């Protein structure tokens, strides 16, 4: 088993085995717990979807995302570099959403320690906003808005390109320094430098990798 799989398995086990009653931690208690794990300079401290979330520095001065389960006391700390390496990346999140039956995937982004996605089960289906756990990809919040009642969907059989495939396609097309790659509005978006040496913003077809729009990055 790889280190990444061991890390995810351990976190999943912690979620499954936690049997203590709801903590309902107060803000001072949650902050104290984070500090007790050796983190300082806590910022963006908030409670949402049953978790206390924050950003803080480790003893080594490395910035981490902190996640404290208000019901179980489970504590997680990870860096931005862990996403897509030790932890699931955006491609795995998209695959998970497809497995859940969502055929229309509009926005997927990592925000405040959680994955956030806006999806539909079909073109005329209700808009659904999801929040997923960063390790297990468990859906921890789901809110539906408008549209027809959700019906079991048949996900688009054409797979969405992974982040790595998109980067490779852009590099093959002559772009370099590809960064800030995000999946939004049903497409991949990225910043890069084109063959003329100009910094540009790109919209990329999620299925073919073709450039749908290129504009100068101000």
TrEMBL record:
Keywords: Signal
Residue stretches making up the PepSY domain: 91-142, 161-212
Recorded superkingdom: Bacteria
InterPro entries: PepSY (IPR025711)
Region forming the signal peptide: 1-24
Protein name in the entry: PepSY domain-containing protein
Organism: Ottowia cancrivicina
């Amino acid at each position: 088993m790889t280190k990444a799989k061991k890390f995810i398995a351990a976190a999943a086990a912690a979620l499954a085995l936690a049997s203590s009653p709801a903590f309902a931690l107060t803000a001072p208690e949650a902050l104290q717990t984070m500090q007790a794990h050796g983190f300082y300079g806590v910022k963006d401290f908030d409670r949402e979807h049953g978790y206390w979330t924050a950003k803080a520095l480790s003893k080594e001065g490395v910035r981490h995302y902190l996640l404290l389960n208000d019901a179980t006391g489970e504590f997680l700390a990870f860096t931005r570099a862990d996403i897509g390496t030790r932890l699931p990346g955006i491609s795995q999140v998209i695959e998970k959403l497809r497995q859940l039956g969502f055929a229309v995937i509009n926005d997927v982004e990592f925000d405040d320690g959680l994955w956030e996605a806006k999806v539909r089960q079909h073109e005329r289906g209700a808009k659904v906003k999801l929040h997923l756990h960063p390790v297990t990809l468990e859906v921890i919040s789901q809110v539906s808005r408008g549209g027809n009642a959700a019906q079991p969907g048949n996900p688009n059989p054409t797979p969405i390109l992974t982040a790595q495939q998109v980067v490779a396609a852009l590099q093959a097309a002559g772009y370099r320094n590809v960064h800030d790659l995000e999946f939004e509005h049903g497409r991949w978006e990225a910043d890069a430098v084109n063959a003329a040496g100009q910094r540009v913003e790109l919209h990329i077809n999620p299925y073919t990798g073709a450039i749908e729009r290129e504009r100068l990055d101000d």
